[in-house]
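Handoff note, outgoing to incoming analyst
You'll be picking up this chain. Sequence as last confirmed:
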Amino acid sequence: MNDIFASLESEVRSYSRTWPTTFDKAGGSWLYGEDGTPYLDFFAGAGALNYGHNNPLLKRKLIEYIERDGVTHGLDQATAAKREFLETIDEKLLKPRGLDYKVQFPGPTGTNSVESALKLVRKITGRESIISFTNAFHGMTLGSLSVTGNSMKRGGAGIPLVHSTPMPYDNYFDGQYPDFLYFERLLEDSGSGLNEPAAVIVETLQGEGGINSSRPEWLRGLRELCDKHGMLLIVDDVQMGCGRTGPFFSFEEAGITPDIVCLSKSIGGYGLPLALTLIKSEHDVWEPGEHNGTFRGNNPAFVTASEALKLYWSDDELQRGTIAKGERVGQVIGEIADKYEGGVAKGRGLARGLGFEDPEIAGKISKAAFDRKLILETSGPQSEVIKIMPPLTVSDEELEQGLQIIVDSVQAVLA
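Most recent structure output, in case you need it:
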């Protein structure tokens, strides 16, 4: 790699250390180095590229919009691109699912959506405390960090992160105790010291936390607990929404309706920055301008987002393909986990993980895969899980190619 990255860019960079190549082009499921070397991408921009790199159908709409001098920067002004996006959201996502949500544009990234959700639930309820879960990840700004579990990331705040309390995520105790035993006891005990929570924030499948998937019955129990104690339910679908687990929303399988949903990453379709906060209509109590941001109206992203919803969410073809491909990934990593002591297969849809007791193994496998021209991320509190997240549009042939590289890489490390 060019020394300019080491000499001028901040030491905070991370992915460029994991994959020490200078990339220049990308298309579909592939990234290409400056020398033309192809790398199969099972990372997909941390879930921001569900429809692949430079999706040609989305690219055409974007180029046409730019060439006709469509509005690029529009704050929260009414634009034709925003109107089309809102109409498409209503037609393709909300009405078919019977969802009554208002759409807020909080800023361009996932943490902006989470911050707006945390502020809003406190305004609605008049309460301060937020319940989060072990191994959660919700973003890197202070409010989002306060409900994030990772100690290294929390430590970067430099100040106490308050007004939030972690509770055990599904299966945190390996099924030894009834669901919500501790949580519900604290809520009902006036001597517990737990302030009345405004809301609970949850990922139905924890991506950064180690590909930890919650059961539908656990999520339904959480919804009931929130209703019983007057807490709002926020689902952070930033990484696992937009079809990553199969259905568009990751909570659909559980049959629950959150009070607030956070979306970002692949909602923009093309990898352009965009975030949404979906708010039940009765909870939309914002004053005009009470939460805003300079880049909350990313009109080029509205264009590609609208086209992605029309192309991929007018029927269930993508959803069925994601589930089928996910089952194939699950089969292969399940066989690997059975073969090697301490291995565990995790996840659902096309968010899959292969975990190991020795936290160094996942990193070694990721490196071995990169040497074989496959891009894999690790996740979990000790980076002990290989995270497998190809674009949802990955072909069957590309999927098999990547899975074979994973098999070979595991064998090279553990043989």
